[in-house]
Amino acid sequence: MALSQQCSGCDTFFLPAGTLGCASVTPDSLIVPLGSAVTASCTIHRELCRGLEQGKIRISWMLDNKPVAGSQHQGPGGTEVSNLTLPRFNHTQAKLWCCVEWNGTKQRVGKTEIRAGYPPAKPLNLSCILNLSDYGLTCQWEQGTDSHLPTSVVLKCAGSRGQAVTGCTPREGHRHCTVPRRLLQLYRQMEIWVSATNALGTAESEHLCIDPMDVAKLDPPTLQSVQSIPFQTDCVALAWDTARGTEHMELQCELRYRAPEDPAWVTGIIGRAGTAQRCGFLFGTQYHFQMRCRRNSASALASWSKWSPGRNYTTHEKAPTGKLDAWWGAQPAGTGGLLEVQLRWKPPRQREANGRVLGYRVTLSPRRRGRDPPTICNTTHTQCSFSVPAGTRRVYVSVYNAAGESAPTEVVLLERKGQPPAGLRAVPGDEHSLWVHWEAPLAPVMAYVLEWQPVTAEPEYCSTCWQIEHDGAATTALIQGKWGLPGGPHPLVSCPRGLAPTGPAAPGPAPTSWLSTAAGAHCSSL
Amino acid sequence: WAPWQALHGAPLTELSGDQDFQLFLQRNLEFTRKIRGDVAALQRVVCDTFQLCKEDELLLVRQDMDITQVPLEQCHKRTFQAETCFSQIRAGLRVYQGSLATIQALLPRHAGLVETLQLDMANLSSNIQQQMEDLGLATVTYPSENQDPRPTFSTHFHHQVGGFFILANFQRFLETAYRALRHLASL
Predict the structure, then answer these.
(1) Is 0.80 topped by the overall pTM?
(2) Which end of chain A is less packed: N or C, by CB atoms within 10 Å?
(3) Is the pLDDT of residue B45 over 80?
(4) Among all residues of chain A, which has the CA nearest to that of B20?
(5) Contact check, Cβ <8 Å, B126/A188
């Protein structure tokens, strides 16, 4: 069996008995810049090549398996020498074979291996974090373009006056490593950089000058409790624990919270004291709280911990406040001198509901000094129909939650005489809304009521198809509803119906023009 | 203006505006708090493990023991001399670094914490040394290996009591050093 063995450092191949030392291949350099010239020589020692003692020796070259031409001449001591020059070596790695003709066949008698590449690229984007559990400094970086050559990479570090030492060596193919605590100087600037070295040179990253503590990675704090204190205010008291291992640090902590429907967080910096109070919360509303901390140091490198696990807290309820938007319609009921009233109202906004609405109460007189007047309606719905003696001028509607009942909203059952606004028209907003426009009447207006209803084969009653525009100077309003899905077989058609100006003296329904609109189409007068 | 002059007494205020010096103080105040926290943790371990928790219960045994006292009088307010105080802090850290070998032998399961403490103490001493050099003050460079003989104890119980007092004294030492740094930071 023909075995060959490479002699380290000399790149000569010794063949088994008979060919031992027959040929030696000597390159000028084993590692060259990619694209540069490569030169090598192959020397045949005739007396050591059994079978080649006599006759002419013809030396040839192969780069991997492709023939390349050299120039042959006689060397000292009866040797035959062939010199080879490859003007541009474009392989990152290739075997260069020296061959001789023997019995009409090309024989491989010597070999060397050439590698080509580039000096290491400058390592980029070096960054480090200090793990507070073992105080190891883990640094990562990007290596840049491949040099195609074996490259050793080490992370170097030096104290402000100390010698540079190897902090750590990344595992093969990795771009990070951890400097152990014993090589770190805490609470003082250290210089840290990556050094990459291969046969063609050395490249260093930018030097990072950091106090390792400035890049400490803090665990998030833990929110221990959230509670409403004192009762009946809009304030919340929070208590938290900072992460283990940060006891000796001055921390800056940040609180953020929001209700589920809030698009944005409310954030605020709070110290590290462990307790804080925040005010301005809505009553009876669930909030989601989170906290994070960072070292309160002068360094811009100090980074925030992750946000703590969230904690939900529902603020306590308070009796609803504010007035309800209410609207009504009425007609005489039979001959008994009664009036049939359809009263409708809008649920209070969260800011005024102060909790979960449990129901609404309609009475004929306001509640006074704890005395409850007779209730006409007590309902969880936002409408109520009832009969009152003709001539009844006022009814009262209030809303209640678990904490109490709101002050009653007075509804005046007096029909307004007068002209409705002119120029009513509607244009589509999107598939779920319409813009309604009108002309301002000459008389001053306190508010407008807009009413609409779906137009189907048989117009159906829609208890929610109305709204109040409280701005008396407005001449446009956006109304929203389920107009039907685009492309649906029977899109729901909606129609702004009434636009009734309401004045301070006697708000009430007034006949107005009707408009008809299909989703996506302009309204037009009937 | 020679900044080191400010360390010799009255005109200390001149250093209060030196940003590097202030940064040094802020950093190493936190560092001292860290070390104090770790010493307190070891004191708790000694208390839990050996039921040696109160100093006034061990005064009798202590009379028979030779427990090193580290001078720090130059760091006390009345006699405050910053340069000497810094030197005394470094000398003390050096002594306690050696004494902690006693604790390590006593609490082999907590060897990691003791080693961390020793590294921190060496770093703190080095930080002070470098700051003194920055200010043009004379410093001593200690050999890396501690040559001071370890304290010896006649019985295992005395070893435990010795460990207790080393930690207690070290904690007091750190408290004084902390106050000295805070005093300089407040000027």
Answers:
(1) no
(2) N
(3) yes
(4) A188
(5) yes
